[in-house]
């Protein structure tokens, strides 16, 4: 069944506007009476049927809202040190499909890319990538892309578990760390192409992060976040 996000919800109706209207009316050729699924982007979904289609809005008759079945119980936020051009889109797209709940671009010592303000255009583009991936993978939320933060300004308040993937970590694997301590809100931190400096890993540890290894092979920065997301959810979801 087709699924759309809406944030215009009344007691028994909801409205979809914007690009989706054309998609519903012209591409899918849906008409009054057709059934769809709606999602509020906050983790709730409902069955609905089309009441009316106008050039700029589709109105739906909604049934009981319920918790979206596609959301993982564990919330993963990826703190991704800025990769080279174009890679952030891939990272966001894949991690949304896999179940990540939010993204924080991080400026670190060895980032090749230095983001300069104003950041809004770039963040909006990344947010659109997240929304498209959320639609495609039938997520119940649209994971948010936050403004970039410098590594030494990161704040992990509100997270139960904070894991920094460190290529030089010899002792603690992701699996070990998760089996020792794993909360409902997990922050994962991935370095840029050039990796983390020792000083940066120390800073992250002082901020409460545990450094973990993802195995003996060195992954590209764009592979690391996806791998962690998939492995964490494999470990914690039933
Ligand atoms: N240039 C570095 C590798 C950086 S890989 C080197 O050659 O050593 C980019 C980022 O991916 C790393 O900073 C780390 O966060 C993550 N990463 C890649 N492979 C990893 C591994 N085997 N264990 C832990 N983290 C890894």
Which segments are poorly predicted (pLDDT under 50) over 5 or more consecutive residues? none
Q: State the domain count.
A: 2
Strand content: 25-35%
> Which structural class fits the helix and strand makeup?
alpha/beta
Q: List how many beta strands DSSP finds.
A: 14
Radius of gyration over alpha carbons? 20 Å
Looking at CATH, the homologous superfamily of the largest domain is SPOUT methyltransferase, trefoil knot domain
CATH first level of the largest domain: which class? Answer: Alpha Beta
The average pLDDT score comes to 96
The coarse overall form would be elongated
The CATH topology of the largest domain is Alpha/beta knot
Largest sheet: 7 strands, mixed
Summed up, the helix count is: 6
What is the CA–CA distance across the termini?
A: 25 Å
CATH architecture of the largest domain: 3-Layer(aba) Sandwich
Sketch the topology as an H/E string, one letter per element.
EEEHEEEEEHEHEEEHEHEH
Proportion of residues in helical segments: 25-40%
Bound molecules: S-adenosyl-L-homocysteine
